[in-house]
UniProtKB/TrEMBL annotation:
It comes from Microbacterium sediminicola. This is Lysine--tRNA ligase. It catalyses: tRNA(Lys) + L-lysine + ATP = L-lysyl-tRNA(Lys) + AMP + diphosphate. Keywords: Aminoacyl-tRNA synthetase, ATP-binding, Cytoplasm, Ligase, Magnesium, Metal-binding, Nucleotide-binding, Protein biosynthesis. Its cofactor is Mg(2+). It comes from the Bacteria. Its EC number is 6.1.1.6. Belongs to the class-II aminoacyl-tRNA synthetase family. NCBIfam families: lysS_bact, PRK00484.1. Binds 3 Mg(2+) ions per subunit.
């Protein structure tokens, strides 16, 4: 029995009756394979098959073959059947490896005999993993092939594949990523790109003598960022715990302990909205360098991103999925938040601008900040996003934020009411943030107290007082520069994809 590719989106988008019928037929074939099994290597799901080569390696090794050229070299490979065509005495199948490389299997009456050829026709379906061995040739059409002398099922597929020649919907791609990886080259390339980015980041850090560490994801008190946490309960300790929103406060403890250059790549969790640039669960890089500041950490961040782009794309000039060419090279601009906001709005806005004046301005231009959480800093940042953010195209460090929105950051050395913080914008979204870290435990306690007041007023994102962290600071933390960057967003900047495409298995409803 042969079959044609299932309609676009199968199994999710195929009629349930059709799936049920195909599955019933395939289950019958599974039963036949199990009944015919003679040892552990047979049946529908053998323990192993005697593979000697990979499809990709064969394609590279025999790229020189001319159309119709044959060799006496014997190879044994396995792959998923993604195309099948059966004729009287000769069957063709395209076998696809996990990396997307393909080779043609040619099963002929002359080479395998009548019984084996008929078993192929009866038992092999699209989607099956099949092992074949035989001589390597190039077909008359120039297709690298194996003239099969022996074959067996490596894993029987009970459900049909999507149409390999029609694009899955975005929802199907996200919900059934395993099918997306089979069907779409971009999906596999994104997985590889992500691994390449992580390797590049680690290589760059190693070149600067940084140490990779790991810190707790379950925390008795959330902190390190302004965000709503996920809450859970530990039965063993009979206590409420939080999935971490950031590793910052633990990484700083390590700096206090003498690990002067360290970084962590791991998961963060924020109980907030999901959109094209936000995911409740995401991968985060944080790094801290003692005896540096926010200028030094900006230099390091630019190097990390540019090296990652080169590792993936071969250049700092990257091409996004929609064909847009984007330049990540060169020296990136450093733009003052207050200066750029004043220029864009046509009004002078400084750290001394009153809350009432900012509220009136925000109301005038339709920027809404709830009164219960309205502060000078929140209004300045919201107004900046209204006026300046939409015009950012090139990678830009936005420098020097209001003090009341950055409770873990050192005050600016020359500008009162401002802290030494930057946000890096790429493609119009925030990619990373960096600080000259606040290391004075007395001022840090004062900042935490102000955050606690905001929490009491109903700000769900405000931080709580962390006594253990303050105790660590009281033992002395050196001047330090720190940064945080979303790995998913870094992939977005390099590939041009949305966040759900850069995460292998994103959370969906």
């Amino acid at each position: 029995m042969t079959e044609t590719p299932a309609p676009q989106g199968a199994p999710a988008d195929t009629a349930e009756e059709d799936i049920f019928e195909q599955k019933a037929v395939r289950l019958g074939k599974r039963e036949r394979l199990l009944a015919e099994r003679t040892d552990a290597a047979g049946g529908a799901y053998p323990v192993s098959v005697p593979v000697t080569d990979t499809i990709g390696a064969l394609r590279e090794r025999y790229a020189h073959l001319e159309s119709g050229e044959e060799t006496e070299d014997v190879a044994a490979v396995a792959g998923r059947v993604v195309f099948s065509r059966n004729t009287g005495k000769l069957c063709f199948a395209s076998l696809q490896a996990g990396d997307g490389s393909r080779i043609q299997a040619m099963v002929s009456l002359a080479a395998v005999g009548e019984d084996s050829l008929q078993r192929w026709k009866d038992l092999v379906d699209l989607g099956d993993h099949v092992f074949v061995s035989g001589t390597v040739i190039s077909s008359r059409r120039g297709e690298l092939s194996i003239m099969v002398s022996d074959w067996q099922i490596a894993a029987k597929a009970l459900l049909p594949l999507p149409n390999m020649y029609a694009e899955l919907s975005e929802e199907s791609r996200v919900r059934s990523r395993y099918l997306d990886l089979i069907v779409r080259d971009q999906a596999r390339e994104t997985v590889v790109a992500r691994a390449t980015v992580n390797r590049s980041l680690r290589d760059t850090f190693a070149a600067h003598d940084f140490i990779e560490v790991e810190t707790p994801m379950l925390q008795v008190q959330h902190g390190g960022a302004s965000a709503r946490p996920f809450v859970t309960h530990s039965n063993a300790f009979d206590t409420e715990l939080y999935l971490r929103i950031a590793p910052e406060l633990f990484l700083k403890r390590a700096v206090v302990g003498g690990i002067d250059r360290l970084f962590e790549i791991n998961r963060n969790f924020r109980n907030e909205g999901a959109d094209s640039t936000h995911s409740p669960e995401f991968a985060m890089l944080e790094a801290y360098q003692a005896y540096s500041d926010y200028h030094g950490i900006a230099d390091l961040t630019q190097e990390l991103i540019q090296n990652a782009a080169i590792a993936v794309a071969g250049s700092t000039t990257v091409t996004w999925a929609d064909g847009t060419v984007y330049e990540l090279g060169g020296q990136w601009e450093r733009l003052s938040m207050y200066v750029s906001l004043s220029a864009a709005s046509g009004r002078t806005i400084t750290p001394e601008t009153s809350l009432d004046e900012l509220l009136a301005h925000a109301a005038e231009v339709g920027v809404d900040v709830p009164n219960k959480v309205a502060t000078h800093g929140k209004l300045v940042e919201e107004l900046w996003e209204h006026y300046v953010k939409p015009g950012l195209d090139r990678p830009t460090f936005v420098m020097d934020f209001p003090v009341d929105t950055s409770p873990l950051v050192r005050e600016h050395r020359t500008i009162p009411g401002v802290v030494e913080k930057w946000d890096l914008y790429v493609r119009g979204f925030e990619l990373a943030t960096g600080y000259s870290e606040l290391v004075d435990p007395v001022i840090q306690r004062e900042r935490f107290v102000e955050q606690a007041k905001l929490a009491a007023r109903g700000d769900d994102e405000a931080m709580r007082i962390d006594e253990e962290f303050l105790r660590a600071l009281e033992h002395g933390m050196p001047p330090t520069g720190g940064m945080g960057m979303g790995i998913d967003r870094l992939l977005m900047a390099i590939t041009g994809l949305g966040i759900r495409e850069t995460i292998l298995f994103p959370l969906v409803k």
